[in-house]
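TA notes, week 10

Several of you asked for a full example with nothing omitted. So below is the full record: structure tokens for the whole chain, then the designed sequence directly under it. When grading your own attempts, check the secondary structure regions first.
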């Protein structure tokens, strides 16, 4: 078994027409995040966690190449690129924690978990997701952006898979 932590954060960015996307889900009325890509901090944290398992950093040169040179701004594609380096390992469980003052995420958590589960080919019970305001102790808790941390557990693929 292996475990890794991924982390990402983005500031809010007033950009007309750009949606707020978290875990592959568009959050209606949410302020978008500043980023070259879609700014999905959940998928970015997941990509970084997978990079922690594989030792291959995707966010940076590889994702920049995908985004800037090839116009790929969908962060799920960065996750899929990271997964391509997993070798004989497979993800068993992921857990996310988001810190932000807004938007309120309670009504979106199920859809976000489902989106992540589908992307990773996991049962939804293997995807944890919590959100907090952090009691306004950080810039994220004061409404300046969103912070996401991901912990991932992986192990060898089962024989016959």
């Amino acid at each position: 078994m292996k475990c890794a932590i991924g982390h990402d954060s983005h500031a809010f960015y007033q950009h007309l027409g750009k949606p707020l996307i978290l875990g592959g889900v568009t959050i209606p009325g949410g302020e978008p995040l500043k980023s070259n890509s879609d700014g999905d901090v959940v998928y970015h944290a997941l990509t970084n966690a997978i990079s922690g398992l594989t030792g291959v950093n995707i966010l940076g040169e590889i994702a920049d190449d995908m985004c800037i040179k090839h116009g790929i701004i969908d962060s799920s594609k960065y996750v899929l690129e990271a997964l391509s380096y997993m070798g004989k390992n497979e993800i068993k469980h992921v857990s996310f924690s988001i810190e932000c003052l807004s938007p309120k995420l309670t009504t979106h958590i199920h859809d976000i978990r489902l989106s992540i589960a589908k992307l990773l080919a996991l049962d939804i019970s293997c995807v944890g997701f919590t959100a907090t305001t952090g009691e306004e102790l950080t810039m994220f808790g004061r409404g300046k952006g969103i912070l996401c941390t991901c912990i991932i557990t992986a192990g060898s693929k089962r024989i016959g898979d």
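The CA atoms of residues 2 and 154 lie 5 Å apart. Use that as a sanity check on your answer.
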